[in-house]
Amino acid sequence: MNDENAALIKRFYDAFGRRDADTMERCYHPEVTFGDPVFQDLEGRDKVMGMWRMLLGRSADITVTARDITAQEHEGTAHWTAHYTFSGTGRAVVNEVDALFRFEDGLIVRHHDEFDFRRWSKMAMGKPVGFFFGWTPMFRASVRGRATQSLQEFMKTR
Asked: Measuring CA to CA, which of 8, 36, 83, 130 is 20 to 30 A from 93?
């Protein structure tokens, strides 16, 4: 166990839970990359933090808790839970996420989140849409496209 890297992950999620994007940003390497089932491949601290700032701005009621944090010299993991209201539909979401990290220069250089997209879409979009379409590649591509467009628009206003 690498205590410094474990503390870095904990600091990131503690800041996330406080909605403290500036502290979250200081945990990331300038060349960080991020991926999850919606935002598949973001490169650079500006884009990655743009995503987090956009999501925090749209989720006034978000709460975040992290557990099962482990870290070695170059890699780490955590499980985190987000409770929030999805801005697109006003529906409550409880998202269970497994995170993988890589470290460089004492910072997070790679952050990858995995969650059950179909489960998330049922909560965020509602049962008819999420249940029947959440598993389809076309629906996932549509959600990803809208998310990417939202991030691009958000980044222009910063």
From this structure: 8
Angle, alpha carbons 102-105-109 (nearest 5°): 35
For 124, the token pair is 């965020």
Give the span between the Cα atoms of 14 and 23, in whole angstroms: 9
Is domain 3-115 in CATH 3.40.50.720, yes or no? no
Closest CA to 86 of 118, 39, 131, 120: 120
Q: What is the pLDDT of residues 78-131, one digit of tens each?
A: 999 999 998 888 999 999 999 999 999 999 999 999 999 888 988 988 876 655
| Residue in the block written with tokens 């170059």 | 74
Residues with Cβ within 8 Å of 113's Cβ and at least 6 positions away in sequence, in order, are 34, 35, 36, 37, 97, 98, 99, 100
Q: DSSP label at 81?
A: E
pLDDT at 135 over 70: no
The DSSP element (H or E) to which 83 belongs, if any, is strand 75-86
Cα 140 to chain centroid distance, Å, stands at 16
Q: For 91-137, give the DSSP string.
A: EEEEEEEEEEEEEETTEEEEEEEE--HHHHHHHHH-IIIIIHHTT-H
Q: Give the span between the Cα atoms of 99 and 117, in whole angstroms.
A: 15
